[in-house]
Every structure is written in C-alpha cells, then in structure tokens.
Amino acid sequence: MTTLSFQHIMSASSPDPSAPWSASIVVPAHNEASRGFVTLDLLGRAIGELNCLVIIVCNGCNDSTSAMARSLPRVVVLDVETASKSNALNLGDDAAGDVFPRIYLDADVEMTLESLHELLTAVGDDAPVAAGPEVTYAAAKSGRIVRNYFEAVQRLPFLVAIGGQHLEGRGAYAVSRTGRSRFDKFPELLADDAFFDRMFDKGEKRVVRTSMARLSVPSRTRDLLRSQVRMARGSRELHAWLISTHPERLVVSGAQSDPRSSVWGRLRAHARTGIVIPGGGPHGVELSLTYLMVEAAARVGASLSLHLGRTVSWR
C-alpha cells in the first residue's frame, strides 16, 4: 500500500478520505470512561489531519468506553469480552493489516499531534525500525514518595542510561513494516512493551527527542506499590518466557545488566559503569533511597503474590 507524505498530510486541512491511510494506530482500551479517555481528541485529530487508520480495541469494558470511541468519525472499534491487552494488540494488528508505520498507544497517554507525527516519521523509512517518545510524568498532585520515585526514574544515572536505549514504559511505541515482521503475535504477557523492546537490538530503535508523552502516575504510595508489583511480576514473567523461547534476547543493550542477576548484583554492575546516586546533595540521596525502597518492596510483593497465588494488599 502506498504511504502518503506526512508533510503533505500535515499541510492539508482535511485529507481525502478515499486516499490510502498514511499510518495505523492501535489502541487497547479497558474501562477508560472514568479516566476521561484522554487520547480520544488526539486520535480524532490523527484521523482527520494525518489520515491515520485508528483501531480502538475495547477489551473487557463494562462502561461507556466503546460508545466514546465510536464518537470519532472513520474510527474502527472492536469490542472484545475478554480483558487482555495482548489479545487486544493482536486483534488491532489484524485490523490494521498492511498499513504502516504503526503506533501502539495506551489509552491514558497525553501526546500532541506534533509528537505523534514525529514518532511516525521516525520509523517511516524503516531506519530505525522501532521508536518511542520522551516521557514526562504527571506527578505534581501525587504524594512525596510518588514524586520522588518518578523524579529518581528521570535522574538516577544508571536509569537514564537504560531508558535511553529501551522503549518500554513509554505508553507508546512505533514500528515500521520491517520491524513488525520481526515477530508473529504478541504473546500473552503482562509486559507487552518490554517484550516489544527485546525484539530489537540497540541500533534498531531510538527514543525520539522531539516526541513527548505525558504519563499518568498513582497519587498514593500504596497505589504506586501495587503498580510496581504488577510490573515486577511482568518482568519475571517476561524473563522466564525469554529464557525458554529467545534466550539471546535477554540482554539487548550495553546499558542493560543481565536480568537474571539479583537486584544488588545489578546495582553493583551499574555502580561499576556509572554513578548510582545523582547530584543534588541530600535530595539526591533521598531520591536514590526512595527508588531502592519502592523497588525492593515491589519485588517482595511480587514474590509473595506469586507464592500466595493472589495480589498483595498494601495498606
């Protein structure tokens, strides 16, 4: 299928609806109504101004998410009873067909149309084959521990080094036709974005500095711990899956330590290659301690939940 020039589309006030789609956007959505379905306006503009094929897969929804999605003109909405993000991504892929480049976008991510355009342009010529945006966190109204944690994510040198070479945790990632041919289906894993990231080598992906995504974060410490426990479980699940299916994809960048190492082993590895505690005096120490305590608690919670067969309730 012929792909239109993004520059041409951006200059057109209303693209010809009969023209070939310029790109595709797959959005897994689960009960987004209470959160305002924040990407809806962006998706409407992507359809109307960029001529993007938008597929919203409402999975396991029992609210008005589907009705909100259908308010967009020319959108494709799929309703699925099962709440499964991996399944939603695969159904979205099937519906998008051969329309590339493609973005997988979480329904609660804030982006401008310009940032979306920059992300699509980054993979429009197949080099690199995958890309993600820069990230900021909407933590201004969160508690101190939550604010410290996400500031640490953006300031701790070893995390900055890792983040500069990986696409997970960004709420959006783009792929070219060549990149998407790297794997068949999204496996049934919690960490879909980390799985996607591990399919590519360092030189095949990049973070697009001119594209920004603003991610929502928990407001309370206990909600942060719940989300990090889920992430820790997803990481363990992915590592086990990779060991059994693609052991060569466990470590795909020089900044990434071997995930089979212990937390302290990884910290020691990072300490040998860079500074663990950022500058800023006592506040820098506070950030580091907050990050380490949250991560340690999350890993303990993940271990307990796997052992007990249920989610740990944080009070």
Question: Any chance you could write out the topology, listing elements then pairs?
Answer:
Elements: H1 6-11, E1 23-29, H2 40-50, E2 52-59, H3 65-69, E3 76-80, H4 85-96, E4 102-105, H5 113-122, E5 130-138, H6 144-155, H7 157-163, E6 172-175, H8 177-180, H9 192-198, E7 205-216, H10 221-245, H11 263-273, H12 282-308
Parallel strand pairs: 1-2, 1-4, 2-3, 5-7
Antiparallel strand pairs: 4-6, 5-6
Can you give a write-up of this model?
By secondary structure, the protein is α/β, with parallel strands linked by helices. Helices cover 43% and strands 16% of the residues. The chain has helices spanning 6-11, 40-50, 65-69, 85-96, 113-122, 144-155, 157-163, 177-180, 192-198, 221-245, 263-273, 282-308; strands at 23-29, 52-59, 76-80, 102-105, 130-138, 172-175, 205-216. The chain has a seven-stranded mixed sheet with strand order 3-2-1-4-6-5-7, sandwiched between helices. Strand 1, helix 2 and strand 2 form a beta-alpha-beta unit. The longest helix is centred in the last third of the chain and has 27 residues, at 282-308. The protein is globular and about 60 Å long.
Short recap of the structure:
This protein has 315 residues and is α/β, with parallel strands linked by helices. It contains twelve helices and seven strands.
